[in-house]
Amino acid sequence: MAPIITRGFHHITMVSTRAPRTLAFYRDLLGLPLVKQTVNFDDPGAYHLYFGDETGRPGTILTFFEWPHARRGAWGVGGIHHLALGVESPEAQLKWKRRLTDARVPVSGPYDRGYFQSVYFQDPDGQVLEIATKGPGYDIDEPMDALGRKLIIPPSSRLPEGRDEAGIRAALYPEPVPEVTPDMKLQGIHHITGITNDITRAHEFYESALGLRLVKKTLNQDDATAGHWFWAHYDGKEIGPHSALTLFEWPGATQRARAGAGQTHHIAFRAASAEEQLAWRDHLLGMGIQVSPVMDRRYFQSIYFQAPDGLLLEIATDGPGFALDEDPVSLGRRLQLPPWLEDRRQGIEAGLAPLDMGEGGVPVVAESAGAIGELAGSDRLGGDR
Ligand SMILES: [Fe+2]
Ligand SMILES: [Fe+2]
Questions:
Q1: CA 63 / ligand 1 centre spacing (Å)
Q2: CA of 192 to the centre of ligand 2 (A)
């Protein structure tokens, strides 16, 4: 059988304690369309919100389970450290820093990560987010047809001791940014970064289970004692969009990620079709991996399994997509329930907090869980985000 190669991420699912606040943050502040409001099919009393580009294309989808009573999750082995969303240019990134700062969301950066430039902040539940520029790309320090073959030591100008921290802090767009202008449009998942205590084992797993390829082997630029490796859909010529998974190495660490508010629940990779998904399931079973049966998630079909360090992974089909039960030009306006829950609609709606379906523009005072600066530097949780 031909090797199975994912084209990249389908979606990422995170945990929110208050759906209305999450909506205000992602739709009104970050400008991401809500493409579906539904409930958690495994727990229909709770919202499941989906954001994405206008149609919710795979690779742009951010979803949230609402767990009103969830305690704060924690970083650790087998967890996701942060999610990075793409933006076209450094200038647009500076506009984001201004817009977020003015909304009282603490932002750090922009940091030169070499392959892209990064700013960091948190959503109201404490999920760490990054906005990363599209370029300059992974071929700045090794040829595009030979990425990931050798260890790259970052230049000292990109490490804490060589950085102009005061200049980085002071960089700010000169004008207020009350609207998300077209040049600022967030372009879906740029990369997702997790934490592992065995990066070699992770490498073998992501290559053989998902067909991802190593595209950069470097060091954590906030803690150069530890590794930072990048994988992606890569054919030797280019890197697929929305496909970069990176891992921080915490060698010997035993602190495991704890599910909860502000933590990623799982990440999903793409299968082009139901047939490919089934072939993939067989492939994973053949590797001795436990895999769930195919689950009907209505807008896609899913299988679930775990990476060796415990991270929950999903493979989701590209179709049928979010226009299945709504007009594609007005996605996300009304609570959608699958047929098997429709007769319970009244009770379900009564139990959910109403969402503001106005045209946005509601001023958002972010209830951020603390300045990002408090996270960085104090211990190895900081990491090269
Ligand atoms: Fe999922
Ligand atoms: Fe990052």
A1: 8
A2: 7
Query: In angstroms, what is the span from residue 104 Cα to ligand 1's centroid?
Result: 31
Q: What is the DSSP letter of 328?
A: G
Determine the distance separating the centroid of ligand 1 and the alpha carbon of 44, expressed in angstroms: 15
Nearest ligand to the C-alpha atom of residue 120: 2
Q: How far is the CA of 41 from the centre of ligand 1 (A)?
A: 11
Which ligand number lies closest to the CA of residue 385? 2
Q: How far is CA 19 from the centre of its chain?
A: 18
Alpha carbon of 35 to ligand 1 centroid (Å): 15
- The answer to whether 54 touches 37, Cβ cutoff 8 Å, is no
Residue 145 burial (CB count, 10 A)? 9
Instruction: Give the pLDDT of the chain (385 residues) as one tens digit per residue.
Output: 556 899 999 999 999 999 999 999 999 999 999 999 999 998 899 999 999 999 999 999 999 999 999 999 999 999 999 999 999 999 999 999 999 999 999 999 999 999 999 999 999 999 999 999 999 999 999 999 999 999 999 999 999 999 999 999 999 999 999 999 999 999 999 999 999 999 999 999 999 999 999 999 999 999 999 999 999 999 999 999 999 999 999 988 999 999 999 999 999 999 999 999 999 999 999 999 999 999 999 999 999 999 999 999 999 999 999 999 999 999 999 999 999 999 999 999 999 999 998 754 443 434 443 333 333 333 333 344 4
What's the full length of the chain, in residues? Answer: 385
Of all ligands present, the nearest one to the C-alpha of 63 is 1
Determine the Cα–Cα distance for residues 74 and 181; give it in Å rounded to an integer. 34
CB 257 within 8 A of CB 77: yes
Q: Ligand 1 centroid to 89 CA: how many Å?
A: 30
